[in-house]
Amino acid sequence: MTESTAEAPILVSRPLPRVALVTINRPAARNSINIEAAEMLGALVEDLEADLDVWAVVLTGTGGVFSSGADLKVVSAGRLDALFTPSAGFAGFVRAKRSKPWIAAVEGLALAGGCEIALACDMIVASAESAFALPEVKRGLVASAGGLYRLVRALPRAAAIEMITTGERMSGPHAHQLGLVNRLASPGDVVACAISLAASICENAPLAVRESLGVARLAHDLDQDQLQALGEAAQERLSATEDFREGPLAFIEKRPPVWKGR
């Protein structure tokens, strides 16, 4: 994986070992997703998934805005479908198959599809001055990129239904209070806070993190017996890895574990 040029709509860098930082880079358009951005983000998700040196990913936006969602110029031209990929949905992201943890670093607004991108991440770090909204109903649309069900899963039902039906914004502090946001940061410190969270994740065995996350992501979709079976299968797969032996050995030898991801 190589770092992208500053003019690209999607940027990628490596702020720390094992951590990738992906940035939506269309500040003049409030980081809305156009066709090029959707294609680049979709391809980048696949690249990062295959990169053995990346254990966690932070996703953010430039210019003090996370993302305002779909580029309305594309929508008004009748090309909304071009912002969706067959395998990964809106922005090449919201339904992408990802085993690694993704953290949304929300500075400023996460609106419409931008909110849905944040919801599709596993965790959210937000600024105290940020806000989230699904304003599609104000334009005769529906939040068809996962927001209608992910928001209800992430928030108390009444709060989620109010956001969906009114299209009004929820502040970062309120979202943090209700559990939508993992960590609340000062304005300007969101990315650093998200990278710190990613670094904490990367202290752990990467395969164990991915296997655990894979089961946790399905908690709303499967019953207890199915989830138990998935957990047991995950443990069985891990038992054949070097890291499975390294964890207990490092504990016995009173030293930090050296994870190899295999």
Helix tally equals 10
Alpha carbon gap, first and last residue: 20 Å
As a percent range, the share of helical residues equals 25-40%
Strand content: 15-25%
Number of strands: 11
Q: List unreliable stretches of 5+ residues.
A: none
Corresponding CATH superfamily of the largest domain: 2-enoyl-CoA Hydratase, Chain A, domain 1
Main sheet makeup: 6 strands, mixed
CATH level-two architecture of the largest domain: Alpha-Beta Complex
What letter string, H or E per element, gives the SSE order?
Answer: EEHEHEEEEHEEHHEHEHHHH
Q: How would the global form be characterised?
A: globular
**Structural class category:** alpha/beta
Name the strands of the widest sheet in spatial order. 1-2-3-6-8-11
Number of structurally distinct domains = 2
CATH C-level class of the largest domain is: Alpha Beta
CATH fold node name of the largest domain: 2-enoyl-CoA Hydratase, Chain A, domain 1
How much is the radius of gyration in Å? 19 Å
pLDDT averaged residue by residue? 95
Keywords:
2-enoyl-CoA Hydratase, Chain A, domain 1; 39% helix; alpha/beta; 6-stranded mixed β-sheet; 262 residues; 11 strands; 10 helices; 3-stranded mixed β-sheet; 2 domains; single chain
Protein described:
- The protein has 262 residues and is an alpha/beta fold.
- It folds into 2 domains: 10-201, 2-enoyl-CoA Hydratase, Chain A, domain 1 (Alpha-Beta Complex), CATH 3.90.226.10; 206-252.
- 39% of the residues lie in helices and 17% in strands.
- It has helices at 35-50, 72-76, 113-120, 147-154, 157-166, 172-177, 190-201, 206-216, 224-238, 242-252, and strands spanning 10-16, 19-24, 56-61, 84-85, 89-90, 102-106, 109-111, 123-127, 131-133, 170-171, 183-185.
- A 6-stranded mixed β-sheet has the order 1-2-3-6-8-11, with helices on both faces.
- Helix 4 (147-154) runs antiparallel to helix 5.
- The model has no long low-confidence stretch (mean pLDDT 95).
